[in-house]
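Trying the structure run again after the queue cleared.
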Amino acid sequence: MDKIKIAIVGVGNCTSSLIQGIHYYRDKNPDDAIGLMHWEIGGFSPSDIEVVAAFDIDKRKVGTDVSKAIFARPNCTEVFCNDIPVTGVKVSMGKVLDGISEHMKNYDDEYTFSLSSSPEQSKEQIINTLKQSGAEILLNYLPVGSEEATKFYAQCALDAGIAFINNMPVFIASNPEWAKKFADKNLPLIGDDIKAQIGATITHRTLVDLFRRRGVKLERTYQLNTGGNTDFLNMLNRDRLSSKKVSKTEAVQSVAAERLADRNIHVGPSDYVPWQDDQKICFIRMEGKMFGDVPMNLELRLSVEDSPNSAGVAIDAIRCCKLALDAGIGGVLYGPSSYFCKHPAKQFPDDECYRKTEEFICQYSKVEMSA
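Done. Tokens:
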């Protein structure tokens, strides 16, 4: 069948893991395809995804074939598939706007960031690139805090007539004005802020929901995260963290039996530890009271390679977006957004998110829903 043609903004670690995964699973079959939530969606396997356009602003990536750019510094995620054929798609210079934090402009070394001297493309040039490439879906992998840049590329997707998957915590799908823009153009929209397969937020949500279901009163909780990739370096600028903290906090609050006071919940990035590279370490503590008002607490440490953890979810989001395109459905895809993202337009308990997504896949790909 035809390929699902995607364009990507931000050729960082998450993009590297996504593209590695597309090729890693090409020689697999359903029986040995470890790590996927779905082997096939609507007849599409992971290897049916094709990158046809990409944008970045780092000098080591701009002008480079995507197959090489995904391994260029400052990318530092684990290489699990280095057999990536030359694609013929070169990374285009994008629009900077607020896509880079001011404090990172002081860095210019192998492990951080180097701004390209190539001229920025205009909005018209970017839209033209999207149209000429044949892209059907634009994925946003800009850094946290890129409010202006995310809105710029969301508008580019609208003007180019393609779907948009917002993997970052800038509120597009969960903003009624932007949601209406995509609905009016009958273009699918998934967002906001991608969840990991087994990451800090989904684990924290699951534990909070467990407390609720088992009658334990949650009184206080925190989630602290450290990492050594450029995402964590970027988030040292606390001014860029507002939407990220809202996204992660609301994802946890939405499944609690009672909303916690702001003082009693802390969820968010904590610090940048360079030697961790793309490894993310999460610490969760939960304090509450159980039967007879007897106090209890739970502590958990989770260590994951950050970017592959999101790529498995992105591969499903892309294929669900393609189902919507083929079915002529536009606007926010509420079921998939709730399952794949931390800050969807509508929050549901995780079992309901899963059911709604399975029903969406069943309805629009005409396959039997899994139990």
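The first strand starts at residue 4 and ends at 9. Worth checking whether this holds up in the mutant runs.
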